[in-house]
Give the backbone structure.
Amino acid sequence: MTTVRAFETRDTLMRAAAERIAEALNHAISERGNAVAALSGGTTPAPAYELLAAMPLDWPRIAFALVDERLVPPTDEASNENLLRCALAPALNAGAKLLPMYVANATLDEAAARADAAYAGVQIDIALMGMGSDGHTASWFPQSPELDGTMNSARSVIAVTAEGAAGSSERLTLTRSALARAATIALLITGAEKRARLESQQRPRLPVDALFSLPSPVETLWAP
Ligand code: 6PG
C-alpha cells in the first residue's frame, strides 16, 4: 500500500508538500530544461501552492497542469483553474504557464476531447493528488458511470459525471494511464478520517487504490 509521512501540523505538511513539488520541478529542469507539475483542486492544497509560488524557482521553465477540473468557467469559485490562478499568482506573474483543462462554449465531451489533445504530449514530473473521504482521487469517483474509463482509457483526459461531486457533477480528469507517465506521485491528505479510510484493511477497493499500482511509488503526506 503506502507509507504515510506524518506531520504534526498542517503548516509543516503544506511546507513539505511545497518543497516536494519544488524538488521535483528543479530536478526536471536540470534533466531536460523544463518541468511540469499536475495539481489537484479541492479545499486542501491551496496553502502548499501559495508556499510553492513564493519560492525562487526558474518559473519561465515551469508549467502547471490540472489533475482534474469541474465544468465551470475559470471565473467560478468552484473552478480548479481559478484556485491555481489565485494560489500560484506570483509564479504565473514570474513566467510560469498554466495549461487549462476547461474549454469555453463546449459540451463536456467536446471539452474532454480538446483537453485530451492539449494534454497528450505533456510529460508530468510530479502529480499532486488529493483524496475525498469517499475514496476518490482526481475525478475518479466510486459512483461514476465512467470510473472504468478513468482506469482503462488510453486517453490522457476523459469526461466524467459524478452525482454529488463538489463544484460540478460534470468533470474532466486525467486518467490512470496519464498518471502512469508521471515521474513522481504525491498524495496530500489531512484529517484522521481520510487516513483511517486509506489505511483500513477492512474496506472495499476504492478509486484511490489505483494510484498504488502505478509505476511510480506514491508518497503520501498527511497531518491531522
Ligand atoms: C477536485 C479535486 C479532487 C480533490 C479531492 C479532495 O476537483 O475535487 O481535484 O480530486 O483532490 O476531492 O478534496 P478536498 O481537498 O476538498 O477534500
Remarks:
- Residues 10-32 form the longest helix (23 residues).
